[in-house]
Amino acid sequence: MVKAARRASQIINRAANDIEHLKITTKQQSDYVTEVDKAAEAAIIEVLREAYPDYGILAEESGRTPGKGAGAEYQWIIDPLDGTTNFIHGFPQYAVSIGLTHKGQPNQAVVFDTTRNEMFTASKGGGAFLNERRIRVTKCLKLEDALLGTGFPYRIFEHFDAYIGIFRELTQRTSGIRRPGAASLDLAYVACGRLDGFWEFGLSPWDIAAGCLLITEAGGLVSDLAGDQNYLETGNVIAGTPRVFSQMLQVIDGYRTPALQA
Length: 262
Description:
Layout: H1 2-16, E1 24-28, E2 31-34, H2 35-51, E3 56-59, E4 63-65, E5 74-82, H3 84-88, E6 95-102, E7 105-113, E8 118-123, E9 127-130, E10 133-134, E11 147-150, H4 160-173, E12 176-178, H5 183-192, E13 197-200, H6 205-217, E14 221-223, H7 231-234, E15 237-240, H8 242-253
Parallel strand pairs: 3-5, 11-12, 11-13
Antiparallel strand pairs: 1-2, 3-4, 5-6, 6-7, 7-8, 8-9, 9-10, 13-15, 14-15
Helix pairs in contact: 1-2, 5-6
């Protein structure tokens, strides 16, 4: 996974020096894909298939490929360039995200910040690391002292009113909120202590599969809006240090609607 992430980063970093010549396609409103996304994803898949040819794949650009035989229980979940909008604007907050699930549960994780050469890795039961240094979530106990990350809705605005209510209350009750624009890195920042918590709605599995494992292996908690572990299915995520997580969950629970249950 590290080898695959580094292979993709070579493509991304070369293209970052020539952004004005990129071919950019709009998948839907405010959702872009570039030739870099596609080339990076192809490079990742090539490396992973060479090592584990029977594992399934769920990739943002090329979709789902079922696993075969003994590999059917495993699935790579790949975002070749999380933060494409940032990338095409030259805003240096984007990453390669690769997760591996076993029977649907996160098992291995890599999030690589190509601009800072920061490699976040985790193995289930083996801890989380930043460039081979063990990382832990912060010891923050009170929501009032917490610095949180989030992501604003940019494609689907069905739950916008609930989101604004949550944002308003958490802005008033914390020491600050940041919205850098790449969920995989936001989650990695919770894992290494740069943020105390994070929440967002409507994410895709490739946005969060790796980052959520980083947090749990770093001593944090992750759930969907109902406090359950179905975040890969729902795309709704709350994460943080144990105490901050519980206080965030309590706030967010007050804004759940019949259409926003998990």
